[in-house]
Amino acid sequence: MQKGISVYAGLGYTVQENLELIEFASSLGMKYLFTSAQIPEASDTENVEDEFLAILTAAMKNNFEIILDVSPDTFFNGEELPVTPRLDDGFDTPRIAKLSRTRKIQLNASTVDEDFLNELKKLNAKFANITALHNFYPRPYTGLDSYFFINQNKILHDFGIAAGAFIPTLAGKRRPPIGEGLPTLEDCRNFSADLSARYLAALGTDFIIIGDGLPTFDECKALAEVKDDEVVLTAQMMTDDEISKELLSKTFTRRPDVAKSVIRAIEGRQFLKSLGAQIKSDDSPKNRTFGDVTIDNSNFGRYEGEVQIIDDELPADSRVNVAARIIEEEFFLTRYIKPRQKFSFKFV
User: Fold this and answer.
1) Is the pTM of this model over 0.70?
2) DSSP letter (8 states) at residue 127
3) At how many degrees (to 10) do helices 48-61 and 15-27 cross?
4) Are 97 and 138 members of one domain?
5) Using the 8-state DSSP alphabet, how is residue 227 labeled?
6) Radius of gyration, alpha carbons of the chain
7) Vertex 83, ends 82 and 88: CA angle to 5°?
């Protein structure tokens, strides 16, 4: 999974701020830089061309793939420009198909449908040159619903098209004029960049870009560290047992056979065996509830070491230790741990 940043001209960010962001994102291994040729709210119109040139020059120097948001009015078929044009609404299918045969292009992932893509196929579009990027939504309550987002990505993936999306900054400078974040998913508007990125990763997003123009360096780091195709859950440790702590530091895989009340990890027992240790029984077994992370102890015989995330209300069991608990804000992520999906915990 690739990551990226957004950098804009004419919106009050200084040239120095933009260049420092580009350099830092490059040092983290980020690949994409998104910018726009259509910013009606740009205030510094006198210097916007110089700023835009500085952004493009720095991006090329740092080997970014530059994604340039364009409309039919602002795109002038500049094949010589080292950019991937993101074709906003208004481009017809014959023009898109023709462009795809000579250069990389990017579609609006939020508005395409199967009929549109089938028409491109009939027109011999070169799908190897096509990716897609969802819109971001400055106005609160207008961001995409997760169900629609997942369905759009499936349509694109069925045609072999990678789909990307935006996350907002929460700690950095939010882009004017609304200043309330630039997420693709409405759920992410007030999430940290870290949680937003982990959410999109859990949904199988192919690449993630921070939509706002000046995130903090910590937010950039959080995005850069997000793992591909793995659901990472923030949890609180509820045991002092060192073996249990070591066991829960591993990455697990959900079993392919889905249990009714728990998410079962495949590897827990194997990991414990490799540690050559035992899990002692808790002195006072606890009732198990949504978000609890449990480890079967030595009283459970051959099940000792099994790791589970509880997805129900279950009674206390002397054979099962409640070792950790997912923080309440992230309970929702458990629904995206699919069969054979990897998952892990980071502890606070």
Assistant:
1) yes
2) G
3) 20
4) yes
5) P
6) 23
7) 155
Distance CA 208, CA 225 (A): 12
Number of neighbouring beta carbons within 10 Å of residue 111: 13
pLDDT in tens, the chain (348 residues): 999 999 999 888 899 999 999 999 999 999 999 998 766 665 556 678 889 999 999 999 999 999 999 888 777 555 556 899 999 888 999 999 999 999 999 999 999 999 999 999 999 999 999 999 999 999 999 999 999 999 999 999 999 999 999 999 999 999 888 999 999 999 999 999 999 999 999 999 999 999 999 999 999 999 999 998 899 999 999 999 999 999 999 999 999 999 999 999 999 999 999 999 999 999 889 999 999 999 999 999 999 999 999 999 999 999 999 999 999 999 999 999 999 999 999 999
Q: Kindly state the helix (H) or strand (E) to which residue 207 belongs, with its residue range.
A: strand 207-210
Strands 32-36, 230-237: pairing is unpaired
> In b/e form, how buried is each residue of 295-327, taking b as 16+ CB within 10 angstroms?
bbbebbeeebbbbbbbbeebeebeebbbbbbbe
Task: State the residue range of the domain holding 248.
Answer: 234-347
Is residue 316 helix, strand or coil?
coil
Domain ends where: 187, 211, 228?
228
Question: Could you give the count of Cα atoms lying within 13 Å of 275 in the half-sphere of its Cβ?
Answer: 20
Q: How many whole angstroms separate alpha carbon 136 and alpha carbon 130?
A: 19
Question: 62 and 146 share a domain?
Answer: yes
The residue count of the chain comes to 348
CA 136 to chain centre: 14
Express the helix, strand and coil content of the chain in percent, nearest 5 each.
30, 25, 45
DSSP bridge pairs for 288: 314
Asked if 285 and 297 touch (Cβ cutoff 8 Å), the reply is no
Q: What is the Cα–Cα distance from 163 to 157, expressed in whole angstroms?
A: 8
Q: What gap in Å lies between CA 164 and CA 184, rounded to an integer?
A: 10
Q: Please indicate, yes or no, whether residues 95 and 199 belong to a single structural domain of this protein.
A: yes
Residue 185 main-chain phi, psi, to 5 deg: -90, 130
Pick from 241, 250, 240, 299: nearest CA to 270 = 250
The CATH number that applies at residue 166 is 3.20.20.70
